[in-house]
Amino acid sequence: MDMSAKRHLVLVLVLSCLWGALSMPDPKHREDLMKTEASMQTGGRMVLSEKEQQLSSRLLQMKSEEVMRVDFPPSMHFFRARDLIKESPIFSLLQKVPKGAALHLHDFSMTSVEWLVKNSIRFFFSSQIPKPLPQCSPWVLLEKLRALTVNVTALDDSIMKNLTIFTDLDPDVAYPSQDVLWNRFEEAFRAVSGLVTYAPVFRDYYYQGLQELYADNVMYLELRAMLSEVYELDGSTHDMIWTLKTYQEVTRQFTADHPEFFGARVIYTIHRGVNSTVMAQVVQKAMQLKKTFPDLVAGFDLVGREDPGRPLWYFRNELSLPSDKGLQLPFFFHAGETNLEGSEVDQNLLDALLFNTTRIGHGFALLRHPVAKELSRKNGVALEICPISNQVTKLVDDLRNHPGAVLMAEDHPLVISSDDPAMFGSSGLSYDFYEAFVGFGGLRSNLGTLKALAINSIRYSSLSTQQQDKALAMWQKRWNKFIIENT
Amino acid sequence: MDMSAKRHLVLVLVLSCLWGALSMPDPKHREDLMKTEASMQTGGRMVLSEKEQQLSSRLLQMKSEEVMRVDFPPSMHFFRARDLIKESPIFSLLQKVPKGAALHLHDFSMTSVEWLVKNSIRFFFSSQIPKPLPQCSPWVLLEKLRALTVNVTALDDSIMKNLTIFTDLDPDVAYPSQDVLWNRFEEAFRAVSGLVTYAPVFRDYYYQGLQELYADNVMYLELRAMLSEVYELDGSTHDMIWTLKTYQEVTRQFTADHPEFFGARVIYTIHRGVNSTVMAQVVQKAMQLKKTFPDLVAGFDLVGREDPGRPLWYFRNELSLPSDKGLQLPFFFHAGETNLEGSEVDQNLLDALLFNTTRIGHGFALLRHPVAKELSRKNGVALEICPISNQVTKLVDDLRNHPGAVLMAEDHPLVISSDDPAMFGSSGLSYDFYEAFVGFGGLRSNLGTLKALAINSIRYSSLSTQQQDKALAMWQKRWNKFIIENT
Ligand SMILES: [Zn+2]
Ligand SMILES: [Zn+2]
Question: Which residue of chain B has the CA closest to A345?
Fold first, then answer.
C-alpha cells in the first residue's frame, strides 16, 4: 500500500516543470496537476476496466444530481437525512456494492432494533417471575405493560424508543450536548444488553446481525464484543468462554448457510471506566483468550466515551503486560474520538500508535496531530472511520467537514464502518458508504474509490495474508458479478 | 519562513530511534514526540522570554477554564457566542495583544454599523429631494420614516437591521441555507454602500474604520475595495481616482494623528459576476492604478460568492493580461470558499496558485486539495483565514472543525482576519483571534502562537521587505510594552 514515495516524486516532477511560468498557466500543466491531485485520493490509481469506467460515469452522473439537491443529505443530520438517502438512486447502487469487511461494529448494536423487539418480546412470557438481574430494572408482567398501552404496535414502538437514540424530533433539541447524548446512548446500550444477553436471544441476535450485513453485501466482520455474561431465565449464567464459543458456532452455522460469507472475528473490549486492577486482570484474560482462540479472537480494545474516561497512558503498565510477557495481543484502540484538542485524552492517538495498535477506531482528531498522522501513514495503521457515528455524537455537523474528506483526498490508510448502526437507526455499511462517497468524496471520488475502500477493508483486517488473499479472491468474484449486473 | 525541511528531519530522527520498541513505550520518547508535534504548530518554535512564558501560562490557565464551560463559544454560532466571548477574560487580553496587520477586510463592512447609522443619518436632512441613484431605492423623507416608527432608537434599530446580517433569532432559522444567507448578505452590502458612497460619509467611515482597528491593536491594513463611484447630494459623482486618493489622504491623516499606526493599502476588487469584456477593462484599469499608485495599490482580486460565480479559469485570458504585457499586478484571490468538492469552482484554489497569487482569501477547501496545499506551503502563499465569516456563511458550524485548526497544527503559512466584521456584528480582529486561539488551537496554542500570527501578518503583507522590517520593529515595541503591562 505504500505508494507515497512514488506519489511525491510525481508531484515534484510536475511542479518543477511548471513553477516560475510567467504568462498564462499552461492548460496542459494545469490538467496534469489536476490529474495528479485526483490520483492521490483513495482509489485514485485504481485501473478500471471499460465496464467499470461505464459504471463509474453513471455514478458520477447520479452524484451530480445528488449534489444539486436543496437538501443535500451529507450536510444534514443523519436522523433527518436517512429517508432522503434511502430513496436516492445512488444509495440503491451502494447497497449492491460488495463492500468487503465491517471492521468497526459493536456487539449490541449490530442488529436492527425492529428485529430485536419482535424477537425478544417472547421472553416476557415466563411461567413464573424470573430472578432479578443485577444491572436491570425489575421484571414487569407483559399484561401490566399492555394495560398501559393502547396496542401492541404502540408497545413495540415505546420499547424501541428505549433501545435506540434515533428520534424524529430535532436532534439538536433532543440532544443539546455531547453529555446528554452519551448518557442516553449508554442507557440505550444497557437496555439492549438486558435483552440480548438472554441466551436464546443472544444466538439469534448475532445470527440476524450477520444476516443484515450479508444482505448489505458485507462479507466479513470484526466485532468488538464485551463478552458479557449471558443468562437463562432460571437465573443461571454462562461465562465469556461460552459467549465466545457461541460466536464461533453461530459464525460457522452462518457461513455454512451462506457460502459467500467469509466469516467473523471478535475484538474483546472492556469499558475504559475500570480501574488499574481490573484492567490488569482483563488484559491477562485477553491474552489467554487470544491464545486459546487464535483464529477467533483478533485482539483487544477499550470502549466508552473517551472524553471523561481514563486515557490510554493511564493504563500504560497494564497495556504493556503482553509485551512484558512476550505474548501476542494485538490492539485495536478507539482513539481521537474527541474535539478536546490538547487535552490528556487527546493524547490517545499518539499513545495508541506507540502501543503498536493494529488499527485506530475513529481517529477523528488525527489531522490535528501531524506526528501521529505521519506514524499512522508510514506504518499503515488504518483508521476505522465511522461518519454517521461521529455526526450523531456531535463531533461534526456537516459531514463534508469530517476529517475523512481530507484523509480520503490523501489516500490515508482507512476503512469505512458504522460503529453502532442499530443505535443510530442505520444498518449495515451502506449509509456510511453513502456519506463517505457522496459527502467526503464530493464529485471527485469514483468507482475506483469504492473498490479501494472494499480492498482496504480486507487488507487492513486482522486476517493473515493468506486468509486475506482468499477473502480478496472471493470478493473479486462478487465484484465482477456486481459490475456485470449493473452495466 | 521555510523551516519545513528542518522539521521533517527532526521528525524522522525522533521516529527512527523509537519505532520497533517492543515493551512499554519509553516515556522519554513519548515526551519527545509530543514536543515535536507541539513545535510543529504555528509559533511552536518561538523562543519566549521569561516574562512571556509567565503570560503564556496565564493564558493557558484562562483557556483551561474556557474549555470547561458548558457553552463553549467556538462550538457555537458566533451570533450566539458573541456576548459570551465579549465577557471572557481571555478575550479582554486578546484585545490588548498587538495583532499586527488586518490583511482581509472589505471596504463597506470594516466600520461598525452603530457608528454608520448615527453618522450617516444626517444625510437624510437635505433641502430638496436628492437625485435618485441608479443602484438605490428612492429617497424617502425622514419624517415619513419617523411617522412609521415609534422613536428614534427604534428607527435606528430598524435601519441597522438592514445593514448587517446579525440577528438575535436562531441563525439557522433566519438563514436556513447558504443561498438565503448570501442573498441577505449582498442586500445588506448594497444598503451599506448606498450610505457609505456619499462623499462626506465616505471619508469619515474610513477614518472610523481605521480607528476601530487601531483600538483593537491592529497597526496596518490591506483593504479590499471596489473603488465605487462616490456621490454628492447634487447628483455629481467622483471617480475611482478620487476614491483612491481619498483613501490615501485619510490614511495619511490617520497615521499623523496616530503615529503608532503603520498605514494602509488597497486591493482593488471587482465582482466576479462581470463578463469577460468588463473583466478585461477592469484588469487594464487595475494595472494602471498599480502603476500610478505603486505604494497605495497592493493588487487585485475578485469578490462575490464563489459557488454560483464564474471560476477564475473562465477569466484566464483577462487575468493573463498583466504578464502578457510585462506589467506587475499582484493578485490576492479569494479561493476555496466553498464546500462543493470537485466542482469547477473548487478548482479556484489551484488556479489562484497557478496565477501566482500573493495570498489566498479563505482557502477553506485547501485541505481537500493536497497538490494546492503543497504549492501554497512550498511557495509561502499564505491563507487569509476568517473563521467567523466561514461560520456565518454556513461552511462550518463548530469552529473546532474549521480547517484552520489543522493548518495551524502544521504551521501552514496563514494569517487570521475578519472579512466583513461589521456585517457579522463583530469588529476588529479580536473576535476572530479568539476563535483561532481558543477554537483552533485548543489547549495547545500559546503566546508563541499569537506572536507568530502577528509576525505572519506583517511578513505576508504586500509591503516591501524594508517596509516590513520597519513595521516589525514598530510592532516589537508595542509587543514588549504589552508583555510588561500584562505580567
Ligand atoms: Zn466504536
Ligand atoms: Zn472576503
Answer: B443
User: What distance, in Å, lies between the first and last C-alpha atoms of chain A?
Assistant: 29
Question: DSSP letter at A421?
Answer: G
AA identity, residue B337? E
pLDDT in tens, B421-465: 999 999 999 999 999 999 999 999 999 999 999 999 999 999 999
Cα distance between residue A379 and residue B21, in whole Å? 14
Interface contact flag, B341 A370, Cβ < 8 Å: no
Asked if the Cβ–Cβ distance from A374 to B24 is below 8 Å, we say no
Residues B8-31 as b/e (b if ≥16 CB within 10 A, e otherwise) read: eeebeebbeebeeeeebbeeebbe
How far apart are alpha carbons A317 and A319 in whole angstroms? 6
Give tens-digit pLDDT for A315-371: 999 999 999 998 899 999 999 999 888 888 899 999 999 999 999 999 999 999 999
Give residue B332 CA to ligand 2 midpoint distance, Å. 10
A410 and B370 within 8 Å at the Cβ level: the answer is yes
In order of A310, A460, A461, B469, the CA distances from A358 in angstroms are: 21, 8, 9, 50
Coil, strand or helix: which one is A298?
strand
Rounded CA separation B220/A317 (Å):
54
> Shortest Cα distance from A371 to chain B (angstroms)?
6
- Please answer yes or no on whether B30 and A375 come within 8 Å at the CB atom: no
Tell me the three cell numbers of residue B116.
454608520
Q: What is the pLDDT of residue A235?
A: 85
User: Nearest CB to B320: which of A23, A319, A354?
Assistant: A23
**For B73-112+197-485, which CATH superfamily applies?**
Metal-dependent hydrolases (3.20.20.140)
Element holding A222 (H helix, E strand): strand A218-225
Q: What are phi and psi of A242, to 5 degrees?
A: -60, -45
- Which phi and psi (to 5°) does residue A220 adopt? -155, 150
3-state secondary structure of A423: helix
Torsion over CA: B45, B51, B56, B57 (sign)? positive
Exposed/middle/buried for residue A270 (C-beta within 10 Å: 0-12, 13-18, 19+): buried
The H or E element spanning position A439 is none
Q: Is the pLDDT assigned to residue A9 strictly greater than 50?
A: no
| A334 three-class SS | strand
pLDDT average, residue stretch A436-447: 95
CA distance B275 to chain A (A): 19
CA distance A115 to A106: 17
The residue annotated as part of the active site, out of A104, A106, A334, A362, is A362
